[in-house]
Each structure stands twice: as structure tokens, then as C-alpha cells.
Amino acid sequence: MFNLAIDSKLRGCDLVNLRVCDITHGNQILGRAMVVQRKTQRPVQFELTEPTRTAAAAWIEKARLNPEQCLFPSRLADSPHVSTRQYARIAHQWVSAIGLDSTVYGTHTMRRTKATLIYKRTRNLPAVQLLLGHSKLESTVRYLGIEVDDALEIAEQTEI
Prior knowledge:
Layout: H1 2-8, H2 12-16, H3 20-23, E1 24-25, E2 28-29, E3 32-36, E4 43-47, H4 50-63, H5 84-97, H6 107-122, H7 125-132, H8 137-144, H9 148-157
Antiparallel strand pairs: 1-2, 3-4
């Protein structure tokens, strides 16, 4: 779940709603997947790194999941997948386990992490916008917490 949260850059509601077939083709874990985000109804693509593919394959096998099942099934009979609240509890446990303040880091940190790293390395704001599924560049600027003037200057210098 942790690896997939980082790689996918999905909101918690979209992460917990993933189905096995969203990241697989037959018995193979895909190198790239696409899902439609619940909040925006916009498709977003993401790559699954080798460690994520390995972890996902091991999880699917261990949990004996079939393609139509949710990747993170709930233990409750009336819910097909873990809740976003349960995902938040799990994330807080991860954060605490590595000695960080769990009041500072949470599920949205998982979404923001890779996007921030990509932006810092490339300064390619339109690419990060696309990866996050934002419709407006200004949304991505606010999301990353960068200055608007700096962002627009960088965007003007970046060719797609």
C-alpha cells in the first residue's frame, strides 16, 4: 500500500478503491496504470516502479485476490475496500514507526511526495500538473507551495 501510494500519487479515496485489474494484465503487474479520479472525473496515469510491482504481486498472491476484487479489501462484510479512515490510521502507524510526528505526515503526504520530488528535480510544472491530474496550473502551484511568479517563469521556459 505504501509503495503504491507513493508511485500513484492518488488521493486516499482513489487509492483504497483500486481494483486488482487496475494494475494488472493477466498475471502481470503493469509498469503503467491509468485510473479515473473520483474527485475530478479525470483520468490520471502513473508508473509502478519495480519495488512496487514486486510488493503488489506478493500482496495479490498472499491475499489470493482475483482481478475484480479491491486491491485493499475490507474485513467488514458491507465494504469492498478499506475505508479512507482506515488508510489514514495505517499511514499514521507507518509515520510513527519510523519516528516521525504523525500529526505532521499523513495520507496526503503520500500523494504529494513523488510530485514534489519530480518538481524539484525537473522544474517541469506542466508534467507535475499532468501527473496529479490537475486541470489548472495554478492548482498545481498552490499544491506544491511554490511562488506563482517563479512557477510561471519556469512554465514559460519549459517546452512540452
